[in-house]
Design a protein that fits this description.
Layout (H helix, E strand, L loop, with lengths): L1 H27 L3 H4 L6 E6 H8 L10 H10 L3 H4 E10 L10 E9 L3 H11 L2 E5 L2 E8 L2 E9 L2 E5 L5 H11 L9 H6 L9 E6 L1 H4 E2 L2 E4 L2 E3 L6 E8 L7 E8 L3 H22 L6 H12 L1 E5 L2 E8 L1 H13 L17
Antiparallel strand pairs: 1-2, 1-8, 2-3, 3-7, 4-5, 5-6, 6-7, 8-12, 9-10, 10-11, 12-13, 13-15, 14-15
Helix pairs in contact: 10-11, 11-12
């Protein structure tokens, strides 16, 4: 009897250990939406659930334009309310003057999706349909491009405006092996271990994709001392202990230690300059938040890597919420395949 009890306890202990290992491996794996993305030059991921929880009392619903409101009425899906996660892959285009512009995208969107309503809308607006891997892929015309859309799960939609079906086929194929915790694109496998645990937003890849102008990196009109082909790994995660602040971390992998040293020095000078420029600004909530952000900014170097860290204080989000209340946006994010500005 004792031997049987001991054997039972050993089996239970082994099962618990296996479950613990599985949970640990799963916690270290990228989110499923990101793992489904095809090969790409850059990836951006946002978990909207904690962001929406943080802002739920202060965000003002924007006014919908007629086209978007008709999409909501027809499908029951309001992306501003129902979208929970967004994983976006960016693909550099050989011809930046083509219909896709310099960058095409592939996305996996996760949220509260009313399947039949969305399928009816896609069926009504599609110029063609393709059955692939058990999924229906709808082709929707949009500003001279074709946007392909497929509902690949009860809460998951794949979207791609890549010129061929290659990328959305890859998403459908990856969805079949989504249970494998370390599957994913080359870029994701190479850099995800640098993303801090509990990050609510992160990105990796060539920063020049969305910000490159004439060989220089420009963000909000400010030219940064970064190479257009720099590989960046950036993340936003809660600062511990949890107090409403977020930690921003950006890692730039340069070509050499000399390049890293020069870049680190240039970024340090840029931060000092920004502190000086913002110091005399009026003492209002947005300016105070910006000053607090710059005060926490740190630039360091380790071999070929340049690391930038800063803290977004709670006042930063309070100021954004205050500005949001003053705005009355006329438009909202379009439905998949709806008319939108050229990238």
């Amino acid at each position: 009897m004792k031997r049987r009890t001991r054997r039972t306890l050993l089996v239970v202990a082994a099962v618990l250990v296996l479950l613990a290992v599985a949970v640990f491996l799963r916690s270290k794996a990228p989110p499923e939406a990101a793992r489904l993305l095809p090969e790409s030059d850059g990836i951006v991921y946002v978990n909207l659930r904690p962001i929406r929880t943080f802002f739920r009392k202060t965000l003002v619903p924007p006014r919908h334009d007629p086209d978007y409101q008709s999409f909501i009425d027809a499908t029951g899906v309001d992306w501003e309310r129902d979208l929970e996660q967004a994983a976006i892959a960016m693909h550099r285009m050989d011809d930046p003057n083509g219909p896709n512009g310099p960058v095409a995208y592939s996305m996996v969107l996760v949220g509260k999706i009313r399947g039949q309503g969305l399928r009816n809308w896609l069926d009504a607006h599609a110029t063609s349909r393709e059955s692939y891997g058990g999924a229906t892929i709808y082709s929707i015309p949009s500003d001279g491009r074709t946007v392909r859309v497929s509902q690949i799960g009860y809460d998951m939609v794949a979207v791609s405006n890549f010129p061929t079906t290659e990328k959305i086929h890859s998403i459908v194929d990856r969805h079949r092996t989504a249970a494998l915790p370390f599957s994913g694109s080359t870029l994701l496998s190479r850099h995800y271990d640098e993303i801090p645990l509990l990050s609510i937003a992160w990105g990796m890849g060539r920063i020049g994709l969305p910000f490159n102008e004439s060989g220089a990196i420009n963000v909000f009109g400010l030219q940064l001392p970064l190479q257009s082909d720099s590989t960046i790994v950036a993340s936003v995660s809660p600062e511990l202990p949890l107090a409403g602040a977020l930690r921003v971390r950006v890692v730039d992998e340069t070509a050499s230690e000399q390049a890293a040293e020069a870049q680190s020095s240039a970024l340090t000078n840029l931060v000092a300059l920004a502190r000086g420029v913002t110091e005399p600004l009026a003492d209002n909530p947005p300016n105070r938040a910006l000053k607090d952000l710059l005060k926490t900014a740190e630039v360091s170097r380790s071999h070929q890597r340049v690391v930038i860290k800063a803290t977004l204080p709670p006042s930063f989000f309070a100021s954004l919420a205050g500005e949001e209340k003053k705005l009355t946006p006329e438009t909202t994010p379009p439905a998949p395949g709806a008319s939108q500005p050229t990238e």
